[in-house]
Amino acid sequence: MSVQAETVLSIEHVAVHFEGLVAIADMTFSVRAGEIVGLIGPNGAGKTTAFNVITGFLKPTSGEVRYRSTPLNRLKPHEIAALGLVRTFQRTSVFRNSSVFENVLTGLHCRGRSNIWQSLLKTRREKEAERELVKDANEILQFVGLERRASEAAGNLPYGEQRLLGVAMALAVKPSMLLLDEPVSGMNPSETARFTQLVKKIGATGVTILLVEHDMPMVMQVSDRIVVLNHGRIIAEGSPTEIQNNPEVIRAYLGQGKKRA
Amino acid sequence: MSRLLSFVLVAGLASVPLWLRDFYVLHVLITTGIFIIAAMSLNLLLGFTGQLSLGHVAFFGIGAYTSALVSLGFEIHVLPDVTVGLAPKPVWFAMVTGIVVAGLTGYAIGKLSFRVRGAYFVIVSISFAEVVRLVAVNWVELTQGPMALNNIPALTLGIGPIELSFLRKPSFYLLVLAAMVVCYIIIMRLVNSRAGRAMIALRENESLAMSVGIDVTRYLVIATIVSAAMAGMAGALYTHYIRIVDPDIFLFIYTVTMVIMVITGGKGTLTGPLVGGALFGILPEVLRAMAIRPEVQWIIYGVLMVLVVYFLPEGIVPAIKRSLAGWKRRPIDAL
Amino acid sequence: MDQLLQHLLNATVLGGTYALLGIGLTLIFGIMRVVNFTHGELYAFGAYCMYLLVMSLNVNFFLAFFLAVALGAALGGAIEILLLNRLRGADIDTTMLVMIGAWIVMQNAEQLTWSGIALSINSPFPADPLVVGPVSVSWNRIYVFAVAIVLIGATYYFVNRTRLGKAMRATFQDRDTAALMGIQINRIHTATFALGSSLAAAAGALLGPVFVVTPTMGDLAASKAFAIVILGGLGNVVGATVGGFILAFAEEIGAGYISSGYRDAMGFVLIILILLMRPTGLFAQKERIG
Fold this sequence. Notes:
The complex is a heterotrimer of chains A (261), B (335) and C (290). Chain A is α/β, with parallel strands linked by helices and 261 residues long. Chain A is built from ten helices and ten strands.
C-alpha cells in the first residue's frame, strides 16, 4: 500500500470493567479502509469483549469507538449494522431451523425496503422487491460457495459450512467493514483453507476486515496487519513478520505454544 | 396449502348455512371460528415471534368491551361532578374502535415486553390481564361489573337501500368465516414478508438478528400490535354475537384455552391454530354430548396438553407434515 | 389511628403466610427457573388435606398440620419426578406449559372431589379474639403467625446452613460443577421442588382454618406468590420474606383506605410497576453479559 488509506474504525482508550473484573484495561487501535487486520492475543485477553463493544452488544465503561467518524457508543447493534459495520458470531452463527436460503434472505433485511402495508397488500412493488432479494440471495450463496445447499436446514450443515453461511449472512447486509469472530475455530485444515480464500476474496472487493482468531498460520496468511491484545491492552502492532519476531508477543504467548494459542 | 384446495375448502365452508339446519351446531361453528381467530392472533405472537405472552385474553376482552361500550354509549364520572360520555355509535364503528383500542394496548405491551424478558414477561402479561379483569369487575359505572353489559346491538351494514343484518346465525357464520379468511391471509402475507422474516429471526436468535441490522424492538411491537388488534377483532365479533359481555371474559382460563389451541395445533405454523382451534372448539361439545362433566373435560385437556408437549412438541400440523413428507419423499414448504 | 394499628396487625399476620408462599416459589421459580403454575394448587392441597384430616378423619389439629406439610412435600416431589424429570434442559416455555397442564388437572380434580362448596375447618382455639388495647387478633391467627415465623426461620437455616441446602444452591448456580462434585442433580431437583411445594402446602394448611377452602383458592395465592418472588428477587429467601410482608401491607392499606375491591389487584399492580422500573426485579443481582 503506497497511499495511506483513511481510518474507518478507531478505538480510543476503551475500557470494560465488570464487577471487579477488568476485561479490557485500555485499548487503542485503528483500522484503515480496505485493510485486513488480525486481532490476536492469548485466551482471556479480551478479544471477544472488544468485538462486543465495537458492535454495540456491550457498553464500554469508558473510551470511544468511531466508525467513519460516527461515534458508536450510543448506538444499538442493529443501528451499527445499518452503518455498514457487520459482525459474525463464533457460536450460534446461523438460524438453525431455517433453510440456508432463508438465512441469507433474513440477512438481506437491510436491503429490503418494503414496509408492512406493502407486504399485507402484496403490491406489485412488494413482489418486485422480493424477487430482487431472491436474486441477491442466490448471488451471495454463489459467492461463498453454498449454492448447492440452499434448501437444507442450516442446522444440518457441517460446522465449516455453517460458518460460511454466517459470513454469507453478514455479506448480505452489504457491509463496508466485516468483523469476523474466530471464523475458523473448530474447522479442519481443508475448511480453513477454503475459508482463507473466501476472506481474501471478500477483501479484494474492498471490504475492510477485522478478524479475531487463534489459528496463527491462518491469521498470518490472511492479514495485512496484526494487532496483539494482552491483558486488556494492545502490546504490539505491525506486519505479520514483524509480529512473529516481536519479543513481547513471544513472551505473551510463552508456554502456550506459537501455533495455536 | 395450494390455492385450489384453499378455495374449495372455503367455498365448502361457506355453503354450510345452506344445508345445515341445526342451529346449535351452527352456533358451535361460530364460536369455534371466533376462537380460531383468537388462536391465530396468539400464534403470531407466541408461535412466530416467540414471545411468552399469557395475557392474550386481555386483548380479546378489551376489544369486546370497547365495542360493546361504544355501541351502547356510556357516561362516567371522572370527577365528582364532571362526566365524560359517548352517545351510542353504529356497530361497525364500534367494532373498528374495539380493534384500534386493542391494537393500542398491544403497542403498550409490546414496548413493555422488550424491557422485561423471558419468565418475567410471562408474569407481567398474566398480571396485566388480571388487572384488566379486576378493573372490569370493579369499575361498575363503566362496565356494569359482574352484572354485565347486555342488549348489545347486532351488526347491521347499510349501503344505500341495501341493508345487511348480522343478527341471525347463518349470516353471522358467514361474517366469521370471512373474518377468519381475511385474518389468515393477513398472517400468511405478514410471515412470508420481510417483516415476518425479522420476527422469526428475533424468535430464533435475537443477537444474530440484531447483527444483520434487524431492529428487534420495532418488529416485536409490530407483532404485538397486529396480534392484539386481531384478538380485539375476535372479541368484537364475540360481543356482537352473544350480545352480552361480563368480566369473566378476562379469565385466565381463556388464555389457557387459546394457548392449548396454538400449542397442540402447532405453534409457528399457519394452519396450526386452525387445527388446534377446531379441535378445542368442537371437542367440548363432543364431550358434553357424551355427558362428561366439565371438570373431567378440563382434566382431559390438561392431560392432553402435557402429552402433546412430551410426544408432539411441535404440534399436530408439523407431525402430519413430517409423516406426509416421509411418505411422499418430497420436501414440503411451510404450510 | 386504631384502624391503622389493626390494619398493621392484620398485615403482619398475613405477611407471615405470604412469606411462606413466596419463599416456596422463589426456590422453585427463582432457583430452578420453572414457571410453577402448580404452586397455587399445592397451597389449596394443603388446605384440603387439613379439611380431610381434621373434619373427616378426626385427626388432631396440630398433627394434621404436620401431615399436610409432609403430604405437600410428597406431592411436590411426585410432580417433579413424574413431569419435570424428562424435561431437564428444555426451554422455560416447555416446562411452563406442562405446569399449566398439571395445574388444570389438579384444580379440576379438587373441583370434582369436593365440588365448589366453600368448606370450613374447625380449629381448637377459643373463638373470642385476644384484645390488646385498641387492636384484636384471633388466637388462630396468632398461631398462624408463630408457625409461619418458625417455618421461615427453619427454611432460611436449611438453605444457608445445611449441606443439602448448599448443594441446592450449588446445583442451580453451576450445574456442571455441582455434578462433578458428586452432587446428585436429579435428587436435588426433586428435593427443591418438594421443599418449595411443602411451604405452599404449609401456607394453605395454616390459612385454610382461618378462611374457607375452595378449589380456586390457589389461583390468587399463586399470583401473589409470583408478585412476592419478583419483589424479593429470584431465589432470594430473605427477599421473599420481606416481599411477603410488603405485599401484605400494601394489600391491607390499599383495601382499608382505597377500595376493598381492588385489594387483590395490589399484587399485580406491584408486579407491573416494579418490573417497569427495574426489569430484573427489585433485589436481583446485576447479571454479567457474557
